[in-house]
Amino acid sequence: MQPLKTHRLFIKGSGYGFTNIILTSMPVKMRLQRKGRKKRPFYHIVVADARAPRDGRFIERLGSYNPMTKPATIEIDRDKAFDWLEKGAQPTDTVRAMLRFKGVYYKRHLMRGVKKGALTQEEAEAKYTEWVDAKEAKIAARKAKTAEEKAAFYAKVSGTPPPKETPTAEAPEEAATAAGEEEE
Q: Are the C-beta atoms of 1 and 87 separated by less than 8 Å?
């Protein structure tokens, strides 16, 4: 497949001869598009032309990112993102980190191994699904832990006093040993 890049040739000069030729590429970018209100950001992960404005025109929407939840929620179509990477779309640093977190770069790594003959397609798919399942389990555990912390916090600030601790009577053996130590 051909990469989705367009090239423009800019010629700078005084009109009598070419003094400087600059070849620039304007690739397709995978980037965040901000949504949400003031101080409550929410982002769409989109594929857009590099010349388009940040919140403007885009080619395709791949997913969403909500940094306000704990842990941050990233929903992305892994297959579409992988296809765009293979076509030559350039992710921004933040989107690259998200793709790495979601396993798109791991799939790309495995598919390179398939092309070279180090793995079969079935082995690569098995490794990828195993990795995704382990990652999803880890994320679910983190969400459960956050829910527990939140429930504990709400119980603490709910306005009900904690149960009073009543002094317990010492066991007779402990009282006898304490009395024996006092006599000595």
A: yes
pTM above 0.90, yes or no: no
What Å distances lie between residue 129 and 81, 105, 107, 125, 126, CA to CA? Answer: 16, 14, 10, 6, 5
DSSP string for residues in 116-163 = HTSS-HHHHHHHHHHHHHHHHHHHHHHHHHHHHHHHHHHHHTSSPPPP
Between residues 5 and 150, the one the model is more confident about = 150
Task: State how far the Cα of 57 lies from the Cα of 162, in Å rounded to an integer.
Answer: 56
* CA–CA distance, 180 with 172 (Å, rounded to integer): 12
Cβ proximity of 80 and 62 under 8 Å: yes
Phi, psi of 50 (to 5 degrees): -65, -25
Residue type, 10: F
Contacts of 168 (CB under 8 A, 6+ apart): none
The answer, yes or no, to whether residue 93 has pLDDT greater than 80, is yes
